[in-house]
Amino acid sequence: MMEFLYFPQDKSEYIPALLTLLVFIVGAAVTMYFIIKVSRKEEERTDYSPVKEEQDNYQHNQ
Q1: Mind listing the pLDDT tens digit for each residue in 6-58?
Q2: pTM for this one?
Q3: From CA 40, how far away is CA 4, in angstroms rounded?
Q4: First and final CA of the chain: distance in angstroms?
């Protein structure tokens, strides 16, 4: 019966796991980049910006 935690003596068995982890991390970073990029384009298209709204409110209150 194999133990619950398995630490191999041959450290080369870690290489496939590290490569898989690296692929998923890079994929997540690329996905977040595109989500942020699309979100900024949509914000410009809707002409709504919280910073712009605060500036407008500040100018109206003076």
Answers
A1: 888 999 999 999 999 999 999 999 999 999 999 999 888 876 656 666 666 66
A2: 0.59
A3: 46
A4: 77
Radius of gyration from C-alpha coordinates of the chain: 24
36-50 per-position pLDDT tens digit: 999 999 888 876 656
Instruction: Count CB atoms within 10 A of the CB of residue 27.
Output: 10
Tokens 């619950």 locate to 4
Contact 55, 61 (CB under 8 A): no
DSSP element (H, E) containing 46: helix 15-46
Nearest to 31 by CA among 20, 21, 23, 43: 23
**Among all chains, which residue has been given the structure tokens 């997540």?**
28
Residue 8 dihedral angles phi and psi, to the nearest 5°: -70, 145
